[in-house]
Amino acid sequence: xxxxxxxxxxxxxxxxxxxGTVGKHICTLANCFKxxxxxxxxxxxxxxxxxxxxxxxxxxxxxxGRKIALNQLETDFFL
Length: 79
What we know:
Helix content: over 70%
Largest sheet: none
Number of strands: 0
Oligomer: single chain
Radius of gyration: 25 Å
Number of helices: 3
């Protein structure tokens, strides 16, 4: 009976360790998705700001917006 209790205790400890590791990986994934959402919002803000400028056609806005938004440094500088 003592062996069964010890085995169960070891298995529970292993399960807890695995759950902790999975939790850390889930947090990492959540941070990645959050970052991607923030980048997407910043890219949309580039187009929004370009649309406020007069004198640019829709094609020019898209062309310039794409150039700026595809480069994170340019996006940071622009915004």
